[in-house]
Amino acid sequence: MGGVKLVATTQSFFCTRVQWALKLKGVEYEFIEEDLRNKSPILLKYNPIYKKVPVLVHHDTPIAESLVILEYIDETWKENPLLPQDPCDRAAARFWAKFADEKVVFGVWTACTTEGEGKEKAIEAALESLAHLEKQIEGKKFFGGEQIGYLDLVLGWIPHWLNTMEEVGGMKLLEAEKFPCLLEWGQNFIHTPLIKECIPPREKLIEYLTASLSYLRSLAAKKP
Question: What are phi and psi of 171, to 5 degrees?
Fold first, then answer.
C-alpha cells in the first residue's frame, strides 16, 4: 500500500515514534518537515482541529495523534505486529501508553521547566511516575517481550530525550541505582539499528529544548 506521508518535525519524539513504527513495518513514506512556529498550509489542511504534528497521510486521508497513528499503522500493515495479540495484554499496553503520555511526559517536562521552590516537588512527582515503569520492565528485554512493540515505541523517548531534558532543566532523574532495568532497556532499545537511525542529534535537541524553555519562561515573566 503506497501513498504514505508523514507531516512531522525531527525534534518531537511524538513524531519519531511514528517513524519507528513505519520503519519496523517496512513501510516507505515521504517525510514532510514542519516548522511549528510557522505552520504550513499542508498541516492546517490535514489537521485543522489541533494544528499539530504528527499527521500520517495515507492515500490522502489524514490520521492525527501519535497513539492513534501507531494503532492505525499496526492494523493496516500486519507484518511485525506492535500490539500484543492477547486482549488483556493489548489493553495493558494501551493503559501504560496513556499513563506514559499523560503522567510521565507531563511530569518530566514539568520538572524540567519548574524553577524555585516547586522544582523539588516536581522532580519527586516525575520520579514516582518513572518508578512505575521500572516495575513494568523488570525481567524483560523490551516492554513488548523479546521484540520491540507498541509500548517500547511510546516510551522510546526516554533514553535520548529525557537525558537532554535533564541537562536543559538542571536536574537528574534516571539514576542507575534507582532505575537499573529502565536504563538497561533504554540501551537495548536505542542501539537497535532501525531505532538509532531516526534519532535526532543531541546538540540539535539541546538547542531546541533550550529555546523552548526560554520562550516559555519569557511568557511567564510577562504575566501580571
Answer: -150, 170
Distance CA 20, CA 190 (A): 11
Residue 61: strand, helix, or coil: strand
> Alpha-carbon distance 131 to 136, whole Å?
9
Q: Which amino acid is at 200?
A: P
Cell (9 digits) for 71: 494503532
Cell representation of residue 184: 538497561
**pLDDT tens-digit profile, the chain (224 residues):** 459 999 999 999 999 999 999 999 999 999 999 998 899 999 999 999 999 999 999 999 999 999 999 999 999 999 999 999 999 999 999 999 999 999 999 999 999 999 999 999 999 999 999 999 999 999 999 998 999 999 999 999 999 999 999 999 999 999 999 999 999 999 999 999 999 999 999 999 999 999 988 888 777 677 76
Contact 159, 181 (CB under 8 A): no
Q: Would the pTM count as exceeding 0.90? A: yes
